[in-house]
Inverse folding.
């Protein structure tokens, strides 16, 4: 994705991204566009999605509660976890912004997940691949591990990482 596309479409509500597309393209998308898009996405996930390198090793080594807090629909997130065989680490601790009607960068999704897990936000860490997620983690008062290349420099609780392996190293040095 180009930098401009990332800024315009990375994270947030699908409806907002589609509205931007309609304005940029000067057209109205077909009424069944979202349904067709979601079916095509699910097919692509089943065919090509693989876990991030280090995901199974990291999650298997953690002796901490873990959750997924995604801006995506719950069904989409659960499919991704199933296809990558990561669902076994999360159980029922999978949360969607659609459940709250609040999307990142709003911190409510992270705060909801922390409350459901019974963990104070200051004792939580999030791994994020979007700038809106990084901002949500900061606003929630959580430690943020950012896979997104642009990290707010003023946020002391943000750690820029290139891979999940670095989280294991961080935790080993912190403990």
């Amino acid at each position: 994705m180009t930098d401009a596309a990332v800024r315009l479409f990375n994270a947030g509500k699908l409806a907002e991204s589609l509205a931007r597309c309609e304005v940029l393209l000067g057209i109205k998308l077909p009424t069944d566009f979202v349904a067709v898009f979601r079916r095509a996405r699910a097919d692509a996930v089943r065919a090509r999605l693989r876990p991030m390198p280090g995901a199974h090793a990291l999650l298997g080594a953690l002796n901490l509660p873990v959750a997924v807090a995604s801006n995506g629909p719950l069904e989409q997130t659960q499919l991704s976890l199933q296809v990558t065989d990561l669902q076994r680490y999360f159980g029922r601790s999978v949360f969607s912004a659609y459940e709250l009607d609040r999307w990142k960068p709003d911190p409510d999704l992270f705060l909801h997940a922390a409350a459901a897990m019974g963990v104070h936000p200051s004792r939580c860490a999030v791994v994020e691949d979007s700038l809106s997620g990084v901002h949500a983690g900061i606003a929630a008062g959580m430690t943020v591990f950012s896979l997104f290349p642009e990290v707010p420099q003023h946020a002391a609780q943000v750690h820029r990482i290139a891979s999940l392996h670095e989280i294991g190293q961080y935790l080993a040095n912190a403990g």
Observations:
- The beta strands are 68-70, 94-96, 125-128, 143-146, 158-160.
- The chain is about 50% helix and 10% strand.
